[in-house]
Amino acid sequence: MSSMKDVQRVAIVDPSDSTRDPLRNLLLGVESVWLEADCSRYEFFIDVARQSSPDLVVVALDADHTKALQLIQQLVVECPNVPILAVSARGDGQSILQALRAGAKEFLTQPVVLEELLVCLQRLRQTRGTTDANGVFTSGASKSESMVMAVVGTRGGVGCTSLAVNIGCNIAQDKANNVALIDLDLALGDADVALDLMPDYTLADVALNIERLDMTFLRRSLSKHASGLSLLPHPVQMEDISLIHEDHLQRVIGLLRASYSHLIFDLSKRFTPTDMTAMRMADVVLLVAQLELSSLRNAVRMLHAFGTEDGMVEKVKVIINRVGGDDSDISLKKAEETIGKPIYWQVPNDFKAMLGARNAGVPLLEHAPKSRAHISLLQLANALCGKAEAEKKKEKRGFFSFSK
Ligand SMILES: Nc1ncnc2c1ncn2[C@@H]1O[C@H](COP(=O)(O)OP(=O)(O)OP(=O)(O)O)[C@@H](O)[C@H]1O
Ligand SMILES: [Mg+2]
């Protein structure tokens, strides 16, 4: 994901090894960070900062507060465009105020927690604007946040895993993207089968190590498929499901957002606390239905239940899968009326391509790149990523025109 432009080059100064090492390791684990310099003396740091011209400096205060605060004041003068992050075990109002008055932009208490560091890095990125080769000013904020999608079914076998896997592989085709699929169908998920991956680690390993989780460990826990898609599978042992709590998932999602441009969740159909957490944290919820009674009825019930959650219904995009199949005895127009929400996408029934790909353990783009199912899911992936061309085509093909 991180092209050189997205990388934040960081220089740190901390005379104390015992705090410098953990901080350095934390920074080294963040993919978007390039550790430019690492200094153990306050008095040398001005030169270090001048020479390395970092995007951000981190000043640890605790070895000598007076010297550290003087250094911050000096940095503000010498390197006025470089934001300063102060860190200290003293998190009282007075210490924070002193650091900010000296010229620090942000303050974190030691020991630094990864999530807080990531938020802080993001904020400091936004305060610093850059001018590109064409002289166009882009604020740091233009680096897009990651996009999180949850795929949820209206009954068993509606096609969630097929959609999640293929949308993921399609998005991963763009080398600028870094896409991860998290199998949250904790008991019976089969995303690993669909991709024919034999993962070394699963969500259970991540949950077991949740306390000392860092980005390096987390990234290593995902298996990379040839398409570029990374997978974090569900636990192998059924009894390990109980290891995975919703707050674990919250932490994992938060951390993955910092490393991946797109996250896709393949959910169970049981509305477990982990399913709900995933949907709450998602930007988009793809509700997969088919044109038959029980699926559509469940879609209505689910939307009704979502109504009690703030902002949930607005995130839902209804996808009708297997359109044109034998059992689709209900018209799209009728389905849309019943659901009371526009149908965002239709995926054609394409038994041969879908089943063949699943049995071969490869995505459609490899197994049947000319199939109708693949073309539809490729366009869906583009539309979800906001690629204008796909949107235009969609209009032309009249996806929304259910003439009366
Ligand atoms: N558009 C499609 N056309 C034809 N067959 C499809 C289509 N989408 C999915 N299928 C087939 O339907 C079956 C179920 O699909 P899939 O496993 O993706 O659904 P699911 O919702 O994840 O199921 P589960 O409830 O088991 O998790 C598979 O055999 C798959 O090949
Ligand atoms: Mg499934």
In terms of quaternary structure, what is this?
single chain
Helix content: 40-55%
Structural class: alpha/beta
Hetero groups? adenosine-5'-triphosphate, magnesium ion
In percent terms, what proportion of residues is strand? 15-25%
Main beta sheet: strand number and arrangement?
8 strands, mixed
Distance between the termini: 45 Å
Q: How many distinct beta strands? A: 15
Mean pLDDT: 89
Principal-axis shape equals elongated
Strand order of the largest sheet: 10-11-9-12-8-13-14-15
As residue ranges, the low-confidence spans are: 130-143, 398-404
Provide a count of the helices: 18
Radius of gyration: 24 Å
List keywords for this structure.
alpha/beta; binds magnesium ion; eight-stranded mixed β-sheet; disordered C terminus; 404 residues; five-stranded parallel β-sheet
What does this structure look like?
Helix content is 44%, strand content 19%. It has 404 residues and is of the alpha/beta class. The strands form 3 sheets. It has an 8-stranded mixed β-sheet with strand order 10-11-9-12-8-13-14-15, with helices on both faces. It starts with 7 loop residues before the first strand and ends in an 8-residue tail after the last helix.
